[in-house]
Amino acid sequence: MRSCALFIILIVLSIGGTSCNININTNPNTNANANTPERSSTKSDNSYSLSQPPVNPPVRLIMDVSSVPNLRSVAPQALRYSGSTTWAPIRNEKSPITTAILNSFPWFKLQYLPPPEGEAPGTPAAIDMLERGEIAFAQTSRELPECKEKTVNIKCIKVARAFKAVAVHPSLPISALTVDQIDQICKGTIRNWRKIDPNAPDWDIVVYSRIVGTGNTPLSRSIGDECQKAETDPIPTTLINKLAKNPAGILIHAAPIIVPQCTIKTLPVINRSNQLVAPYKEPYISSSQCSEKLRNQVDVDVFKDGRYPKELGDDMYIIIKQNGKIQQQVGQAYAELLLSDEGQKKLEETGYVGNR
Predict the structure, then answer these.
(1) Domain ranges in the chain?
(2) Which CATH homologous superfamily contains domain 163-313?
(3) Using CA atoms, how far apart are residues 175 and 197, in angstroms rounded to an integer?
(4) For the segment 43-97, what is each residue's pLDDT rounded down to a tens digit?
(5) Disulfide: which of 7, 237, 249, 331 matches 137 by Cβ 3.0-4.6 Å?
(6) Residue of 142, 212, 224 whose CA lies nearest to 183
(7) Which residues pair with 266 in a beta bridge?
């Protein structure tokens, strides 16, 4: 009888458990209609006994960022921002992070402000706009010296990491490149595809690259920045279209921009350990099979576990001006949204590596 009672007690103690399920172009339009979801008023009990295993800590949702509701009455001009084209997939109006933010705060409609005419969109132009008070914050894909200078009233908040992918024309018979080959192509020491593969066409390599810009020299650069004798353009779509028409071309740009494209071919990279690592999820979808509904997707796991070369990585920052004005609060709130548990998850869904 005693053994039966003990057996029943063990069964009762073994039953239970909790779970939590969480249901985001260069010039985006963030006008979206969404309703603010209701917040549960139930408080969780975080006290544990020796007989109870601790449950997972609650996930910090975007709607839990308390600083955002304080900005409900902010004028539209205080919600302006600008920055690097590496951020384009994130600021797209249909991106997971943008959608998540607007679902929780429909009135927090950030407005992308392009640089003045004659200036290329990117980090340098955005920093100038920030200093002139034209935007609340800048999105950058590199750390600037100002981030380390204590005398400067600039605050740099690292929120994610982006990795570059390498793409060529679909007809080019090159299946992969090593890190050194990519670097040498960018530096101009390898100028013909025959240097990569003796069986490749005898074509001079045409490098396409984003405009990194002048001024605000970053503390570090990754492979693909400031390639020698490259055809540059600030708009990623323009570079992609040029590559799609040139069998001898190569493009180095952010993986979330490159990988989903149907008209070009993303290459796997051979890392320092001689491993072949693709920035996309297998199996690869060829250009002939690629469509609006069937595209290649970024494999964030190879970035996170270190298999993909770190030399192709860029840190991503939100940069705000610490002047005590409402713009500083807007920039800080946006950074907190990205750094929330849900925000980091949404960034990874977009093809970037979260900073937490």
Answers:
(1) 163-313
(2) Periplasmic binding protein-like II (3.40.190.10)
(3) 10
(4) 333 333 333 444 455 677 888 888 888 888 899 989 999 999 999 999 999 999 9
(5) 331
(6) 224
(7) 167
Residue 37 has pLDDT above 80, yes or no: no
Assigned token pair, 55:
């449950």
- Encode pLDDT of 168-222 as tens digits: 999 999 999 999 999 999 999 999 999 999 999 999 999 998 876 544 444 456 7
Q: Which of 127, 85, 135, 86 is nearest to 110 (CA)?
A: 135
Report the alpha-carbon distance of residue 345 to residue 107 in Å, rounded: 22
CB atoms within 10 A of CB 333: 23
Q: How many other C-beta atoms are found inside a 10 Å radius of the C-beta of residue 25? A: 15
Q: Please name the amino acid found at residue 350.
A: T
Q: Which amino acid is at 272?
A: R
pLDDT at 231: 92
Using left for φ > 0, alpha for ψ between -120 and 50, and beta otherwise, residue 34 falls in: beta
Chain-centre distance of CA 178, in angstroms?
23
